[in-house]
What does this fold into?
Amino acid sequence: MGTRRGTGDPATRGRTTIADGVVAKIAGMAARDVVGVHAMGSGLTRTFGAVRDRVPGGSKSATRGVKAEVGEVQTALDVEIVVEYGVSIADVSRTVRENVISAVERMTGLEVVEVNINVGDVKLPESEEDDEERPPLQ
It folds into this structure.
């Protein structure tokens, strides 16, 4: 008589838990890949993030502008973006939603039930002439 090993499908012998932050990182990277997305997060979030990015050892936060709520088999996401001036906000939002859903479902196996997108700002084009006309800050 040999030693009997576990029977059944190995996938049923334990549980995998995916943290909210993992899903948020995946969603953040997928959203940043969309043409027309200038930045992620609100103005305040971006300001704190810029400070954190300059600190030695600090890194760009892949979760900036993304909030994920993860259940056992489903997830819902809130994504805040800044779009570039001149792009179609509807088209950019649709593409962000498609990229986020595809990446999260493919990488985690979770069902994405919703991706809410908040466009918090528009990045306006800056011309060098305008910068030269402004008086220097005192």
